Model the fold of this input.
Amino acid sequence: MTPAAGVGFYSEAIRDRWRRPRFRGDLADATSVAEDVNPLCGDRVRMMVRVADGAVERVRFAGDSCAICTASADVTAELAERRPAVEASRVSTEDVLAVLQADIRPTRMRCVTLPITVLQKALQP
Amino acid sequence: MRLDEATRGDFPILERIVNGHRLVYLDSAASSQKPRTVIEAMSQYYERSHANVHRSIHTLGEEATALYETARDRVQRFIGAAGREEVVFTRGTTDGVNLVADALGRTLRAGDEILVTELEHHSNIIPWQMAARGRGVTVRAVPVTADGMLDEGAFDELLGPRTRVVAFAHVSNVLGTITPVARLCARARAAGAVTVLDGAQAAPHLPLDMSLLGCDFYVFSSHKMLGPTGIGVLWGRRDALEALEPTRGGGEMIKEVWIDRARWNDLPWRFEPGTPPVAEAVGLTAAVEYLEKLGMERVAEHERALARQAVELLQAVPGVTVYGPHAAVDRGAVVAFSVAGLHPHDVAALLDQEGIAVRAGHHCAQPLMHRYGITGTARASFSVYSSSEDVSLLAHAVAALRTRL
Done:
């Protein structure tokens, strides 16, 4: 992929989500919270979910992370919200990449997968 | 002629085009590039002289042994060691610290303390944690001041009769701080502690003289000083090495073996079990000879100027924070910085789009990151081939970054 803007794998979707994440914030009435660290960079991502009657009502994320990880967390939250918890826990890397529309290099793939695995941890029964 | 002009043509990799731009390699603190003489010396060794060393009674074995042992002599001269037996080959800095920590650890008792500093690379922290574990030994750390210097007052307070080991970096791999080695080692020695220096970021950049530093052990890597990966050096003062019981056994490190016991070989082979990295030693010889030809005073001066230029140019960019000592203070060949609103990995990835290679992240120094309340930084670092243009290109690219994401 050769983006016109010359920013490589920073697709328009990543830049947009990085500048204006929709799902970043606190979730005071969360029913479950999970957190993990990317050993590559020490970045920490926390996913907060509110599950009621087997459905994910709300998802919010927090953490100091790079543009790719922030964008991934935002998309992961969006894909999980208002879905049955079972479905939300199956949000995959492919699903997130399909939204991000970016050619992520192997060295940065963990930036994409970290929020997804943290969400799965939060949704573990 | 400027040092980079004199050396640039010797490094084939610098001709590479990366993402449509001339490669601007500013990650030499992680690993330096290699001059042609190093690459060719290793190929020639494999094409002409390779065999196992020390007990091969044939022409190739004798040549390989001579080449391997010549590397020891070259290193001895390069670092001003009193004798060749004080130079032990390891796999690298990490391996060297582990070797010493493992051996010293076995002599520690409950209540003993190991003193490190907040600016250490993980490889000079974790081996000491491991040495301490299960023995009732405590690891303590000398704090770092806001401008990246070791707090010497705190050092004196932390150093006490329980302190058995003092381990610290000669040059910080993040801040570039040059620590007052001779002063700290003298105090540690007076307190009866063994001193272990991490020289990974010093050996490639500063003239070294073991007789002046006053430490007991000094470790460094070949691959950061123009040599190949896979080999490093543990220097130990003769009596300090003699006092160390080997913890790794195998061939070559023994004189006589029975089923239930053995007699150790002489120094330095006592600490070199197994087939050593012979080709890497040959490459290290070529690297040391290359650096000696340039002259380490000249190398240090060149890199000092680049570091100062980088600090000044980067500090002038709005939103950029530079970490470590003030511009006027001597520092090693590294400059860590951050760009407000941008994650270090994004900084590095965006710079890479312009062919500029920098390091980003915690630089294996998480306690130091905690000290400054950050998760990471970007870091530019220099070697003999780095130029003033490289630094200008970096500063220009960094200045343009905030509009890029």
